[in-house]
C-alpha cells in the first residue's frame, strides 16, 4: 500500500515524477526565473534549485499577482514543473496552476508538505485529486507500505 | 459553478470566439476555486503590454491577438481580439523611450511595448501604466466588484477603498475585460472580508519608514490572513498606507486589512471582526521593529551606493515635492544614480510644478511606467542600491543580484548626494 493524500484536483491529468518539497511559500515574480526554471528568492530554502520536470510541493503561492504569469512563462519557455501540489487555495495558486497546464492537487490531506520528501517519486492525479508516494527517496518503499 | 443564461451564451460563442475563450477560462478558474457563481465587474486592472521573452515569441507567431489569446485568455486558437467589454486599465509595464541611455534595457522591448500600446488602446484599454491606478483616477467605490492585479493595488483597493477584488492574474483580468465577469469568491464575499488576526503596534508608527517596516512585519506574521491592526498608529496618509499595504503583500500575501476607526469596513475593532471573537494580539514592539530593519538591511556589505531607487509603489505628488525639496540646489555624487518612479499622469503635474526641473538639475531622473524590478534593469554597473521601499528592498536583490540598503527618504537622498550609505534606525 502506498501513502495517498486526497485533496482537490484543479488541473486534470496524471503525472509521476520526482518531488521537490519546501515548507516555504513560493513567489512567482522575484521568486522564480522562468527562463531556467529555478527558485531565485534569496532567503528561500530552495534558492538555486530547479523545479523543471519535478513535482513541486509547497504550502502557498505568495507575493505578487504576477504569480500565474511567471508560472505560465515556465510552460511557454519549456521549464515548467511536471505537476504541482499546493496546500492552500488562493486565486494565485488556482489561476497559476490552470495556465501552467500541469496536473495540480490543492489542499490535500495529510499535508503533502509534511508527508512528501524531496526526491520521493510521487504520482499526482489531477482528475481524482490524489497524490501518491510511489517510492521514497533512495529507492526504499514508502512508510506504511 | 452556476452560470446565467447570458454567461452560457457567451461560452457558446454568441459574442464571438474571444468572449467564448474568456468565459471558458473563467469557468475553469471558478471551478478550481470552488466559486458558486460569477459576479459582474466594470473595473479591470490588468496587464497586456508588458514585454517579456514569452510574449515576444507569441507576438512573432501571431501578433498581439496571439499574445492576448495565450497569455490573457489561456487559449491556443487564432482568434481576433475585440474591444474590451468593460473599463480596463493597463497597470505598470516596461520602460518607454526615456530609459534609453540610462541602462541596458533592450530597445526591442521599447518598440514592442509601443506597438502593444497602440493595439490595446484601440481596443479600449486605458494605459495608466502604473502600479497605483488609484493615484491617477481609477478609484472604485466601496463595495464595487473589481478585477485587479498588482498585489499592492489589490490590498489598497480592498482595505483603504473598501472595493472588492481578489489578487487576479493576467489571464483572469484578460477574461474579465472581455466579459465583465469574475468569480464570486474570496474577497468578493462579505463574510470573507472580516479580520481574522490582530496585530498591535506597541511602538509608535509615525513615518513612511515605520509604516513600511510594520507592513513587512504584519505580512510575515499573518501570511495569507486578514489582519486588523491597532496600537500606536496615529493618522496615516495615503502614501503611508500605500507603503504599508505593499509591504504586507511582499513578506506575506495580505489582500485585505482593517484599521479600526480609519479604514471603511472597520468603524470599530468589533466591526473589523464581524462580531466574531477578537483573537489575542500579535505584538510589534521595539525589538520586532529592530528585527525587521535588520532583515531588510541584511542584503548588503558595501556602503558605497551607486543607485538610489524611490517611488515603489509609484510616488505621489507629496513624495515628489519632498524629494525635490531635499535635492533643491544640490548635485548627486558622480557615479551615483537616482531614479524616481511615478505615474506618467503625475509626472505631467510634476513638470508643471517644477519638481521635475529641480530633480533633473540635481542629476536625478523622474521616470514613469515601470520600475527596476518590473523591467529587470538598473544603471549599468550597479552593485549596491538603496531605497525607502520595503517591497523594492525585498525583491530587487533577487531580481538583479545586487546588494540593498533600506532606510528613510532623507537617508536615501543623502546617499545619492554622497555615494555613501549612512542609514541607521531612529529610536
Short description:
The complex is a heterodimer of chains A (145) and B (427). Chain A is of the alpha/beta class and 145 residues long.
How would you describe this structure in keywords?
heterodimer, A: 145 residues, alpha/beta, Glucose Oxidase, domain 1, seven-stranded mixed β-barrel, two-stranded parallel sheet, 17% helix, globular, B: 427 residues, Aconitase, domain 3, Aconitase, Domain 2, 3 domains, five-stranded parallel β-sheet, four-stranded parallel β-sheet
Describe the protein in words:
The complex is a heterodimer of chains A (about 140) and B (about 425). Chain A has helices spanning about 65-75, 90-100, 110-115, and strands spanning about 5-10, 15-20, 25, 30-35, 40, 55-60, 60, 85, 105-110, 120-125, 130-135. Chain A is α/β, with parallel strands linked by helices and about 140 residues long. Chain A has one domain: Glucose Oxidase, domain 1 (3-Layer(bba) Sandwich). Chain A has a seven-stranded mixed β-barrel with strand order 1-9-8-6-2-10-11. In chain A, a hairpin with a 4-residue loop joins strand 10 (about 120-125) and strand 11. The longest helix of chain A is centred in the middle third of the chain and has 11 residues, at about 65-75. Chain A is globular. Chain B contains 16 helices and 14 strands. The mean pLDDT of chain B is about 95. In chain B, helix 3 links the parallel strand 2 and strand 3 (about 90). With about 425 residues, chain B is an alpha/beta fold. Chain B has helices spanning about 5-10, 15-35, 55-75, 105-120, 150-160, 170-180, 210-220, 240-250, 270, 285-295, 315-325, 345-355, 355-360, 370-375, 390-400, 410-420, and strands at about 40, 45, 90, 125, 145-150, 180-185, 195-200, 225-230, 280-285, 305-310, 335-340, 365-370, 385, 405. Chain B is globular and about 65 Å long. The termini of chain B are far apart. Chain B folds into three domains: about 5-190, Aconitase, domain 3 (2-Layer Sandwich); about 195-295, Aconitase, Domain 2 (3-Layer(aba) Sandwich); about 300-420, Aconitase, domain 3 (2-Layer Sandwich). Chain B is about 40% helix and about 10% strand. At the A-B interface, strand 1, strand 7, helix 1 and helix 2 of A face helix 2, helix 3, helix 6 and helix 15 of B.
